[in-house]
Amino acid sequence: MALLDVKNLSITFETPDGDVEAVKGINLSIEPGECLGIVGESGSGKSQTMMAIMGLLAKNGAATGSATFNGQEMLNVSVAEANKVRGADVAMIFQDPLTSLTPHLTVGQQMREVLDVHRNLSGAEAKKLCLDWLERVRIPEAKHRIDQYPHQLSGGMRQRVMIAMAMLCSPKLLIADEPTTALDVTVQAEILDLMANLQKEENTAIALITHDMGVVARMCDRVAVMRHGEYVEEGQIDALFHNPQHPYTRMLLDAMPRIDRPHEAAEVTLTQSENILNVKDMNVKFDIRVAGGLFGKKLPLRAVDGISFDLARGETLGIVGESGCGKSTLARAVLQLVPPTTGSVLWMGRETAGLDRQAMKPLRKDLQIVLQDPLASLNPRMTIAASIAEPLKTFQAELSSNERMHKVAEMMERVGLDRNMINRYPHELSGGQNQRVGIARAMINRPELVICDEAVSALDVSIQAQIVALLKEFQTDMGLSMMFISHDLSVVRDISHRIMVLYLGRVVELADRDTIYTNPIHPYTKSLISAVPIPDPRIERTRPRIQLPGELPSPLDPGAGLRFLPSKRHCDPNYRPQLNEVAPGHWVAEHDSLEEIMETEARQLAS
Amino acid sequence: MLGYILRRLAIAIPVLLILVVLSFILMYTAPGGPFNSDRPLPPEVMANIEAKYGLDQPFWKQIATYVWNVTTQFDFGPSFQYKNRTVNDIIAQGFPVTLTYGFWSFVIAVTFGISLGVAAAIRQNTWLDYTAVGISIGAQVLPNFVMAPLLIMFFTLYLGWLPGGGWEGGQWNYVILPVTALATSYMASIARITRSSMLEVLNTNFIRTAQAKGLPKQQIIVRHAMKPTLMPVLSYLGPAFVGMITGSVLIDVFFSTGGIGQYFVNSAFNRDYSVIMGITILVGALTIMFNLVVDLLYAWIDPKIRY
Amino acid sequence: MLLNRNAVSQLEDVPIEAVKGRSLWADARARFFRNKAATASLFVLIALGLFALFGGLLAQYERDFVDFTLIGSNAYKGVPSIETGHYFGTDSSGRDLYARVVQGTGISLMVGIVGALVAVVVGTLFGASAGYFGGKIDNVMMRFVDILMSIPFMFVLILMLVIFGRSIFMLFVGIGLISWLDMARIARGQTLSIKNKEFVEVAVATGVHPLRIILRHVVPNLLGIVIVYATLLIPSLIIFESFISFLGLGVQEPNTSLGALISEGAEQMQYGLTWQLYFPIAFFVITIFAFFFVGDGLRDALDPKDR
């Protein structure tokens, strides 16, 4: 008998604009010990399905149909009835570990109350069980962590706590709602490994809700694809990935950027001699106020810590790294939005570091930026045409308003927006459409360099693919250079000619796009690449993972810079690993071998 | 934690000093002294009086003496109006009364306000919620000076249940109306803030986690939702405290309770500067102390505030 | 997805039949008028404004005309009646209460609106500059506001009224002095968050002139919240003024405000002249109610949280 059996489940939300049917009569079942992936883009109803089963629907939502767990009805039962099951036999973890734990209770308090409610267990016995689980989810210094508050833990650690808390009563089913979406890729890999182990060891069934086909390929036994509240296709993992029946599934798989099988980058003839941008030894420091002393004290945070690179005309430089690596700060420092503390930025051979606003203004025509959140980067009080026209007003003030409107309309068509939408406001458009507006605004003065800071990260895969294609098209047409910043290595590989890997404000490796994936040398690059899930279950099963010990350190930690060069720590703790050219165009930072790093880390943990 | 308290104090003390100096300057620059009455006094009598109160001294000396006396001995000097009484005497007489009904008003406003708000939020869109919202909207447009006459109209003149004024050493039937008049609108505001804050907290991710853990509803409310709910309530307590202290002036005048407010208004009409200043400074000090307590409560509620 | 280039050149001459978009203002207006209480309150406010402006034309008596024939027989001859022309009856000195209520409503509205205007101009400028410049300037400016806010202002204002004499002008100065503080805080917070919004960053990156950034990007996004708080500030200022007038320290005879009228009515209620209390209270309560509902409606309509 199936562990969870959902029949004809429909969910309707009452909104001021009328009823919205989020889920339309779906059926699904989960067998004991199996991992079912539920995939879909935003608005597909994949999360709401599980929320309804857990009795967590928002107040304006209503569910019909049936969902039985172990033969017991879960849908529309009283809270008391539901509480017998949830937290005990069915547990759930959520997307955002930063907000999913109660901020004013310690980790231990939040864990113990589960045991108290479901197992009637308290005191030393409960504490021991909690500690056991914290250790099983590999939280270092669990004894110390158990008495800490959530804000004292990193994002990955909080998700581990969530998992430990969910596993306390050995549930038969663990529902994971986008559990790794908010996490860095290496942390994601560790969390996924952890969940896979629990599935095996505890024989816990997992319902994994995700938008990422790669995660599905790594984790799941069976997949269900959802779209607009309906099941599109369901099947065993291999069958579905290698022989998708429905066009939507095929589209999803095709649109998904693959790190092992990239799309072609824009075709340009690169002439290395014609570098339009030279960045040399750039440093950006911020003062961060931290606790300590009577009035707190300031610590310098080296967001960018000595980065040098060149960019040729027509070239795309991909910049990847995890949160806190300084990639966004680097972009802003190149544009002089954040003044670099030291170092030089040569634009077309001219020094721009330290230029004031007036002097910088003429250069801004050729330097544009596209940001991550499409809605937030448009002024909500301006029509999209007004937003697109703003750079024209600044740099081609001589245009009549009629000419300007024609240019705007032309550019809107060019980025794939209907010209009739000229008077629309950003809140009336979808995320993908707003991002097209952002791109139109960046392109309207035919710039030389466009910096895309996570420009596609907030979009659904299918939209993402369209935007990347659009950017490439502009590049071929206008001979434009790009700096493409992203945490998503697969997308970066899709669009870039060369790729630069950052770690805590420094370059660890720089090479052309294929070399860096086929022949990575630095251990950090290796671990990053091996952490990226590939949407192909066969490859995922056989791929080796390179795991680095420990957590991603804080940039404020002075010793963090030598994480990959522990042998230098004793001689000079302020030493910065230098870049060496191991092959033409392939630069790698000094590092110890992976074994040595592991050994040092292990020795440190032991002491 | 100690550093945090010290830092708050380091801000509070200068504020108090500024208040003292500012009110002194205001008083000093006042056109016409306290003894310029309708019948002009003979110059030698005037000089005599000014010498007695130290008004013939140069400005800097007056202010230094005043600040020194206030800060080191809590001595606000003699009253200009009541011949043989000091400001301290007046405060000693009126303050306990104000403190008594002020304390009860505050306690009632806070406890009833929070309970009403929480109840309304948990039972959102039920009759309980609608009643609570109705009461709180209604009470918000009935500030103390509207509440007071209406209460007397109803309970004293119409029903004849409760006395419409006086204090009588604080017997319970004399305390009820002042407390109700003072507390109602603040209770209503607190209820409103609590309700919307609780509704917001109940929508957060960590409450969803607690529900998914299968915790009973009561435990979720008390253990998980209560503290974050109180954050905006806390930040309203400062203004509410100031408002109640201010309101006490009106209560004292309207109900003749004999608290400091009555002396304050009398002094205001009689230009008895030293009493006005003394009470203003006292109230300022109370406010600042209260804000300090609120800041400490913040640190208790939010573990992130541990400077 | 994309077009072919020939199509573009052909489009050159085709007029744009653009779809009219709904701006956030249009959305907010629609949402506001969907709120029945707010819409009704808006009409009530308009009616009150007309009453204050033109209500005097209907009065049968000058507001300072004392009807000596009524002295001693106020209780039965001064009752509200259409026949005598005293629609709302007479006050304790035999003056026409209707004319006095018209004037009181006018002064109360004026106090609220002028105070709110001061708050909008001073508070928004102060707060927005603190938020825009940031850093040390922001720190000093906001510390200043913090200090002013921790002083119990009613006492200081009363001290000022005593020292500089009681007049409408001093009342406006006093209300102006405090009303902008909250607005400054709100404007600052909002400016800070707008300044860090990505669309401002993009505008800076595109070389848009700072003045244009302030005018086109910061101010329009600030406006919504400023309007909401200004509307909610008006009733609190009316309450504030009425409080002072109730104590007899505000508007002076022959002028009057709703607070002063309530105070007079409260003194007379024990003699059974209840209309002298009820009419001013009714106008006061309706005014405050209407402002609160309009303010709440505006907040729901303009609240950025909703987006």
What is the 3D shape of chain A? globular
Question: Main sheet of chain B?
Answer: none
Major beta-sheet overview of chain A: 8 strands, mixed
**CATH H-tier superfamily of chain B:** MetI-like
Radius of gyration of chain A from CA coordinates: 26 Å
User: What do the pLDDT scores of chain A average to?
Assistant: 87
CATH superfamily of the domain at 272-606 in chain A: P-loop containing nucleotide triphosphate hydrolases
Calculate Rg of chain B over CA atoms.
Answer: 24 Å
**Second CATH tier, the architecture of the domain at 272-606 in chain A:** 3-Layer(aba) Sandwich
CATH domain topology of the domain at 272-606 in chain A: Rossmann fold
Q: Which runs of chain A of at least 5 residues are low in confidence (pLDDT < 50)?
A: none
Assign a percent range to the helix content of chain A. 25-40%
CATH-assigned fold name of chain B = MetI-like fold
Percent helix of chain B: over 70%
Helix/strand-derived class of chain B?
mainly alpha
Tally of domains of chain B: 1
Named at the architecture level, the CATH assignment of chain B is Orthogonal Bundle
Transmembrane segments (chain B): 9-30, 101-122, 142-162, 174-193, 233-255, 275-301
Membrane topology (chain B): Multi-pass membrane protein
InterPro entries (chain B): BPD_transp_1_N, MetI-like, MetI-like_sf
Family (chain B): Belongs to the binding-protein-dependent transport system permease family.
